[in-house]
Amino acid sequence: MTSVADAASLWSAIWLTLELAACSTAILLLVGTPLGWWLCRTRVWWKEVAASIVALPLVMPPTVLGFYLLLFLGRDGPGGWLAGLTGARTLAFSFEGIVLGSVIYSLPFVVQPIRNAFEAMGDRPLEVAATLGARPWDSFWSVALPLARPGLVTATVLGFAHTIGEFGVVLMIGGNIPGETKVLSIAVYELVETLQWRQAHWLSGGMLVFSFAVILSMLLLQKRTGRRT
Amino acid sequence: MTGASVSRVEGRFRGKVGALDLDFAIDAPAQGITAIFGPSGCGKTTTLRCAAGLRHMNGNFSVAGDVWQDDAAGVFRRPHERSVGYVFQEPSLFPHLSVRGNLLYGWKRSGRKGHRAILEFEEVVDLMGLNTLLERDPSNLSGGERQRVAVGRALLAQPKLLLMDEPLAGLDARAKEGILPYVEMLHRSLSVPVLYVSHDLREVARLADSMIVMEDGRSVGHGPVAEVLERLDLDRSEDDSEAGVVLDVTVAGHDDELHLTRLDHHGKQIVVPRAALQVGDVARLRVRARDVALATKKPASLSFRNILRGRVVETVEHRRSAFADVLVDVGGGRLRARITRDAMNELELGRGRLVYALVKGISLDRPAVGRPRGRASAS
C-alpha cells in the first residue's frame, strides 16, 4: 500500500536529481568555459585571487557555503529581492535556489579542468590561427574549443557527478520538499533517519553503481581521446 | 612612415628582449627569398614575430607599400589583419583537423582579405607534394611531411609575405634533404616574398637571393647573397668552417665520356662531376673558404681541375688564430680562400697580387631554373 507511494516518491527524487544535475551542468559549462578561458589568458594581477574564490567550495564545509547562500537567497538578501520580481517570497527552499547552490558548489570541478586544458594548449595554436586570418572569436571556436575537448568532457562529467553527490548545500538551502528540493542524497538521509533500511539499500546501491560507472567511463573516455585532461 | 616603397619589404623594430637590446632594420626586395642570418639568440625569431604582428615592438613595417605597422602614425595591424603566412620552427599543425582541414583553414579565411586567390588549392597541393596525404591525420605524418603541410597551409592563406622561422631546424639531415627541393620549388614558382630565418649558412647559401646578417639584435650587413657572403664577418669567422661564397653559373655542356659537366662563370670554365642539369640551366655553386688554396705561379701537374686566375682584393688576418681569409676577384665573381697567416706572409699576398685559386670542393646547389633535384657534389 505504502510501497506505491514510496516508489513514486523515490522516482520523484531520482528524476529531480537528474533534472538538477542537468540544469546545473548546462549552466556550469556556460559559465565555466569563459571563466576558465579568462583565467588562462588574462594577465591582470588579481587573476589568482579570482581563481581562489572559484576554488573556495573545494575546502569550505558545505554547511558554511549553504549558510551564506541561505542569507543570500533569503527574504532579506538579493535572492529574495530577485524572487520578489516574480512574486515569490524567497529563492531559498526552491528548485532555482538549489540549482544556484549546486552551480557555485561544483564550479571548481568544472573550471579547473577547462582552464588546464586551455593552458596545456599553449599560445601556439592561436598564433597559427591568427596568422591564417582567424579573428580571436573565430579561433576560439575553431581551434581553442576543439583542442580543449578532453578537458570539456572531464568538466562535464565531474560537474554532473558532483552535483548528484551533493548533500550539505542542498540540505541547508533546499530543505526537503518533495518534487522541489528533495534530491537523492536527501532522500537517503531521510530513509535512514526513519529506519527504512530496505529502500535506503536500494537507493544507496544505485548511487554506488552510478558513481562507479561515471568515473570508469570518464577514465576510458580520456584514454581514448588520448592526451591531456 | 611615409612613402613606403612598393618594391620592398622594409621596417625597423626597437625594444628590449630580455637582456638583448634589439634595434633591427629590415630592408629587403619584395620578391625572392631574403634570409635573416645570425647566431642563436640574436633576435631573429623576435624580429619575425614583430613582422607578423604576433609581438608589438616600437617601430614600423611595410610590405610592398602596404603599411602594417607605423607607431608614429598609430598604425598597428593585428596578425589576422595582415596578409601574412608564418611557418614556425615546429610545424604546429592543428591536431583536430586532417591534412586537408589544415590546408583549408587559412584558405577559407583568406577571402575576407579582399584580394582574389593567387594560389589555387590544387596548385599548392601539387607544389608541396601533398596529394597522397590529404586525408591523413597530422599525427601520422613524418616531420618533413608535417613541415610541408605547414608551408602549404601558410601559402593557401594567400600571403603577401611569407615568414619562415628556421623551418628545417627541427628535422634530421634526411628529412631536410627531402624538403629542401620543395622550398626551392616554392621560390621558383611563386612571386610571394619570403623572409627566411636561419643560422645555417649552407641553407642560406642554397636558398636565399638576398640576406640580412643579424648580430646581437642589430643588422650588420645586407644585400644579395653572393655579395654578403663574400664579405660575411670576414674578421669574425675563424671558427666558422662553412664560410665561403656562392657563384652563379650557367651549364655550358656535358662530357658523357668522362662524366663531367662544364659550367661557365663569366667566361671562366669550372668542371664538376656530371650533374642532372640541361645545357643553359642556371645553377649556384657554393665554394667554402677552406676548400680554396692559393698559388702565386700557375701550378702544373696537379689533380685539381679548377684553377682560376684572379687578383687579391682584400686580406683579413684572424688575430687569435693561425688563419687568414683572402678575397680573390676571379673576374666577375669572388672567391674566398682560408689559408694560414704564415702562408699569407710567405707568399706576400697583398691587395692586387696575381694569384691562382685552386678549388678543391664545390657543391652545386639550386638550379635557378630547370629541375629541382639538380644537385651534386664535386671535389
Task: Explain what you see.
- The complex is a heterodimer of chains A (229) and B (379).
- Chain A is an all-alpha fold and 229 residues long.
- Chain A has a single domain (2-224), classed as MetI-like (MetI-like fold), CATH 1.10.3720.10.
- Chain A is 79% helix and 0% strand.
- Chain A has 11 helices and no strands.
- Chain A has helices spanning 2-41, 47-59, 62-73, 78-85, 95-121, 124-131, 136-147, 149-164, 168-174, 184-193, 197-224.
- In chain A, α5 (95-121) packs antiparallel against α8 (149-164), α6 (124-131) packs across α7 and α10 (184-193) packs antiparallel against α11 (197-224).
- The longest helix of chain A is centred in the N-terminal third of the chain and has 40 residues, at 2-41.
- The radius of gyration of chain A is 20 Å and the shape is globular.
- Chain B is of the alpha+beta class and 379 residues long.
- Chain B has 2 domains: 8-231, P-loop containing nucleotide triphosphate hydrolases (Rossmann fold, 3-Layer(aba) Sandwich), CATH 3.40.50; 244-378, Beta Barrel (OB fold (Dihydrolipoamide Acetyltransferase, E2P)).
- Chain B has 8 helices and 22 strands.
- Chain B has helices spanning 44-52, 99-110, 121-127, 143-156, 173-189, 201-207, 225-231, 341-346, and strands at 8-17, 20-29, 33-37, 58-63, 66-70, 75-76, 84-87, 161-165, 194-198, 210-215, 218-224, 244-255, 260-265, 268-273, 282-288, 292-295, 306-317, 323-329, 334-340, 354-359, 362-365, 376-378.
- In chain B, β1 (8-17) and β2 (20-29) form a beta hairpin.
- In chain B, α2 runs parallel beside α4 (143-156) and α4 (143-156) packs parallel to α5 (173-189).
- The longest helix of chain B has 17 residues, at 173-189.
- Chain B is globular and about 65 Å long.
- The chains are: A mainly alpha (229), B alpha+beta (379).
What are the salient characteristics of this protein?
heterodimer; A: 229 residues; MetI-like fold; 11 helices; globular; B: 379 residues; alpha+beta; six-stranded antiparallel sheet; 8 helices; disordered C terminus
